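> Could you send the alanine transaminase prediction when you get a chance?

Sure thing. Input:
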Amino acid sequence: MRTFSKSHKLDNVCYDIRGPVMDEADRMIAAGEKILKLNIGNPAPFGFDAPPEIIGTMTDNLHNAQGYSTSKGIPQAREAILAYHRGKGVNVASIDDIYTGNGVSELITMVMQGLLDNGDEVLVPAPDYPLWTASVTLAGGTAVHYICDESSEWFPDIKDMESKITEKTKAVVIINPNNPTGAVYPREVLEQIAKLAREHDLIVFSDEIYDRLLMDGVEHTSIASIDPDLFCITFNGISKSHMSAGFRAGWMVLSGKKDNVRGYIEGLNMLSSMRLCSNVQAQYVIPAALKGTGAPDKELLPGGRIYDQRECIYTLLNDIDGISAVKPKAAFYIFPRIDAKKFGITSDEQFVLDLLRTKKILLVAGGGFHWEQPDHFRIVYLPCIDQLKLSMAEMKDFLSTYKQN
Ligand code: PLP
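Output:
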């Protein structure tokens, strides 16, 4: 009988956030066990509801949203996106340079499919949000990872980035604010990246989906605002800022000089048309969301859930012998270091599996974010403080006797 296996295009594509550890968790859940999931950045299951105004706007427009829209999206949504990014100092020429997508995810795969030939290289951060690496690989390219430096608040190591540029490098990806580290890059760092991109003719892809989830008064700067001529594609959406990941509303904005990227844009237009359009009812929500309607601002201040949960997880983690963590400034992730030597850890995936099986706590290993050493993991601190306290007490207990090798 003829058998079917996955295509060779997928041979090296890896997306571990929902990988083998998750399979084990699913098996345990099916067997009736209760797992505390600290692994997925999906606010809804943790009591963060999409704001009623946003849901109201969507349901009010269901009738208008029956048909396909133009492939880039309805003009009202793109006008609002244009105003938002211009307000952040980004040089966007018109709504023609704005594409809505079924979440940022769809657009990340689209920009790589449109750009890369086999063997082309793209600089991607380590740690990264792994869809970036997966999308480069799926498109036939090679993701070359540059290091973000934990000792320097997880900012990109510019020397490392520069040392990895070759004649095959077409683009550099930055994730700012960052998943999984929660870092927000200062202007000086962005200026250095922009300088490298200019000197080496690189396209800049900037994933800014967390730019409205900032804490401690930090400001967010779009790299596209640093140099009006630099060709950048900036990604954003409402999955996180409006706790509405299931609506699938994201967008990308092309900015800067376009003289030498006309062919690429033709490709993007073709790919955008091939998927007809993004989810139309979700597009109707974008103008309200970008005016700030229903934004979770209070949650990010002392007394708000995200802020208080961050304080809690940061303190509790650093209190565990053998664990240390840099304080995140944005989003809802923390990427702690675990002393691999102390615990004999040679496989971070095994560590995460052992914790899952013993304590029923689900994390993602650092390797899932293309972090090479087996000494990090990511926690999503969306669960409430009681659950975070419980999980950290369990982790402390687990580590008090854990030895992998
Ligand atoms: N970019 C980053 C950095 C993310 O963390 C995520 C989701 O976790 C996405 C993009 C995907 O977002 P969307 O829901 O818009 O597809």
